[in-house]
Amino acid sequence: MHHKGREILVSQRTQLLNALRGHLAEVGVIAAQGPNGAYALAAAILEGDSSIPLCVRDALAPIVRQLQTLNDEIAASDRAIMGLAKTDETARRLMSVPGIGPITASAIAASVQDVGAFSGPREFAAFLGLAPKQNSSGGKERLGRVSKMGNRYLRKLLVVGAHAVLFHRRSHQDGLRTWAAKLMETKPFKLVAWRWRTGLQGSPSPSCAMALSTGMPWPDRGRPRLSG
Asked: Which residues pair with 201 in a beta bridge?
């Protein structure tokens, strides 16, 4: 239930950030892309930036105050989820996988009660909607986009985790991220992220399946291989 409440709060926060950015753009105040740019606009309103007309600051001040309240509530929800994850043995094992934090770990532990229902890591990835669609015939394999079936919330958390690991890969020297860094020298970021989060042994969804089924934390196996 904590996850459902948090998801609603995050959705409302995103709406407020987009509204703040859109309304200020109407008066010629533009910020950089991303949440940091939107928060810079919120800070400008609170600080009484003279580049923003007074009537506009007064009109948008309630949105900024609501945004602060949402941030506090989301932080409280995060602390509650982290507390639950620390007391759950399964969640602690899942957090040993790169890119899996307390929120993702507790969500997986709560959603997947019997990992024995899956024949292997690839089937677990398919359950999450992260496996590519099959369009194969005549002995020739053709893989399409990910199916996006199954639990949308878990899929989103795993995708965000995979992107975060790849963004911060340079500060780590384990085999998985070293392999990803080498692959990104010749491949686009999104392609590497897709390969890493879908069907590779050592990537998030297969590693989660292994941590759930074996009862052991994630090991660094070096270069990933295709999972079966």
From this structure: 225
What's the rounded Cα separation, in Å, for the pair 170 and 172?
5
Decide if 17 contacts 38 (C-beta within 8 A). yes
DSSP 29-88: ----SSHHHHHHHHHHHHTT-TTS-HHHHHHHHHHHHHHHHHHHHHHHHHHHHHHHHHT-
Q: Distance between CA 189 and CA 169 in Å, rounded? A: 12
> 3-state class of 133 per DSSP?
strand
How does pLDDT run across 181-217, given as a tens digit for each residue?
777 777 777 767 666 655 444 455 555 555 554 555 5
Distance CA 157, CA 165 (A): 12
